Every structure is written in structure tokens, then in C-alpha cells.
Input
Amino acid sequence: MAATLKPVNRRALRRYGEFWRALQMVGNALVEAERLAAKAGDATPAKASQGAVAHWSTPTPEELRAAAKKAGQSMQVMASGAKKWEAELISREWRR
Output
């Protein structure tokens, strides 16, 4: 039984490492998004050409900043949960 336990633990450790690196990559992307949102200025939207109706709109700088902040806060909650449950996540087999 000990022989089957070691590969599972190594796999769980590897998968937790992959999960943690993915969290860090998303966190880095969110930091960059927050920087870009902070730089966003009010620009006048381009007018539709010759009567074409635009069915979409761009977010305002305030909406960008709020979305980036909310995503960053959610990421912090997820990262702190991952750290809190690190031993549990590593000790168990990850299922798909």
C-alpha cells in the first residue's frame, strides 16, 4: 500500500504546485489589469458610421477599475483559501 501512496502524494503535490502557479499567473494579470484600469481616461466613443447601429459599448473607466478591484479581491480570497487548505489539498488525490 505504501508504494501506491507515494505516487498519489507526488501527483497531488505536483497538481497543487500547478494550481498555485496558475493562481500566481492570474494574480499577475490582475495586477496589470488594475494598472491599466487606473490609467484609463474618459474618451469619447467613436460614432457609428453612416447610420450603423452599435449594439455594444465600452465600459467606463470607473467600471474598469471596479471590475479589476473586485477580481483582485476574489483572487485574494482564493489564494488565502488555497494556503489555508494547502496541507489538505496536497495530502489527497485530486479528482477531475
Observations:
- The radius of gyration is 21 Å.
- Residues 3 and 16 are 21 Å apart (CA to CA).
- The longest helix spans residues 2-39.
